[in-house]
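Form 12-C: Joint structure prediction
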Amino acid sequence: MTYEEILKKLVEEDERFIVMTAENRAAIRNLPNQIGDRFIDTGITEQTLVGSAAGLALRGRIPVIHALATFLTMRAFEFIRTDVGIGNLNVKIVGGFPGFLSDGNGATHQSIEDVSLMRGIPNINVWCPADEEDMLLGLETVLKDDRAFYIRYNNSKPAISHNKNFEIGKAEVISEGTDVAILVYGVLLAQAVEAKRILEEQGKSVRLINVRTPKPIDEEQILNAARECKIIATVEDHFLSGGLYSIIAEIFLRNQITAKVLPFAMDNKWFKPVLMNDLLEYEGFTGRQIAEKILKNF
Amino acid sequence: MDSNKLKELKQRAFNVREHIIRMSTDGGCFIGASLSCADLIVYLYDSYLNVTKDTLKDPNRDYFLLSKGHDVPALYGTFAEIGWIEKERLKNHLKPNDFIYWHPNRNIPGIEFHSGSLGHLLSVSIGIAMDCKLRGQKNKVVVVLGDGELDEGTIWEGALVAAAKKLDNLVAIVDRNHFQANIRTEDLIPLEPIEKKFEAFGWLTHRVDGHDFEKLDETFKSVKLNEGKPNVVIADTVRGKGLPSIEARADRWFVNFKHEEIEMLLKELKGEEEAKLTSETIVAR
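Section 2 - Result
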């Protein structure tokens, strides 16, 4: 089933689901005709979208709200924090074109602090599917969960076939290995898979972990990787600060351990607004570039 | 409105003002803004809102939300007077064993949603009103906005959306006390003509003296909940209403009074001599 088909099914099965958008219909173009008044478009009003979703949630609905990731998590940040977070309301917040997926739009559209912002809010969880298959595998579970989630919408073409067992708070261990562990969420999984192939050609054993939910994080897999692998690489289309690199640093400190960690993230700068392949190359995120940098650090 | 009812409401509003005054010490509260909407809130819970202590969880109840949350002492005072919470409980103001502080908290029976950050509850009310309509229910959603709060962009975003969605079950009330924190609204960001602004956004508008129960009654009875348009009632009020010593001072919007000043203010409320206040406004709220 597609993203829209799953939403439609949930709307039909469960009267609580309402699909909403601040006039960003890319992911839900066909739904208005199919679900009628259970589709609400508030216009280009991210804050009113979130506030009214909170009102619907107070009435027992589960709003699944859509807007561009940047404007949803930043323009409406205080509404998410104050109405959904403090209110502990079950709203599913779907950010479109997150991270590198905004490719040519420019820094205005680059949501590369969204994971950091959303995970910092009590009662709000974060799910970053690696691609369309990964997203569709987990969608029903996340939407039916009774907690609020920020979801980085990602319909990119899958680089691998995923483990069908999706569980919130559990990472997907794609391969076992002890030389290097690559921890990744979101669209860069494809580059991590390519990096793994190159590293393996060089005789390295690679543990590839698709983090899936940065919050709640799979602490056990991260600690195992730190204890059992020589190098850990974190790969994320996000600022270095506040994302996966920060999350594992917090886990290490809490557990009084340390590890050799090589981060791949945007370090205190926005990325070059060009199409995805050029962007990866320019910013040093291709599988080859990731593998080369890891090899240099052995 | 018959004379007995009028007398009853005036007495209740007086009692609510006493509660507000008593909450203005040991930490203080936003006394000016609370006094300005006390009559309004007393009226609404008596004569306009279809909700009782027993129907607080009923999906068909009317909803009341305080978007300018800093006037919550007026609401808690009203709840105490209509028996939703014990009067004794108001003494828990700012105590760690309860949830009574400067802004509304949902742990208090009757509080539909927390507020404090201005410009939020119009959109939350829109969500509630949309759901009431989706379910074909006839209940209404009433939200009080501060006049200073109208500076917030989200009010006008919400005003557009409420009209677009034809939310005629939504009634916004502007507590038009002519002040925002420390300054007259018209001296900073002029709001008038408010009715014309809302009218241009597609709302039905009403204007009333927010301290006159009979006029409030006439106005709210004229609010039309079936014309495909949201309603806004601009209630002209006086910040600090009932206490000339507060009314006279634009900056007395948040004060932490000494106990002896509280006694003086209670006398002033009864029409006895004006309180000689020495506590100054705390402006850093």
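Section 3 - Comments
The radius of gyration of chain B is 18 Å. The interface with chain A takes residues 59, 106, 112-114, 116-117, 119-132, 134, 153-154, 157-158, 160-161, 164-165 of chain B (CB under 8 Å).
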